[in-house]
Amino acid sequence: MVQDDAVIGCTGELLVGTRGAAGPGEILVRVRGGSETFLAWSQEPLPTGATVLVIESRGCREVDVIEWADPLDALGGAAADAG
What we know:
mainly beta, two-stranded antiparallel ribbon, NA-bd_OB-fold
């Protein structure tokens, strides 16, 4: 199957939580100047609304994801004050 390389490395929000090995959820990703949905697979269950990072494309609008926390969020207001 053809991979969708454009989506790898993108973050998105789970519209439907994943169930780990029991089944996929659904993710909304901002990609190619718009928003697209994909089936999202993860190793462990992730809840609806979680922010995730796309780590692999399975082709046919299916991706592998991991939970994602933006590392810049840890800086709080320091990043805004730097400029």
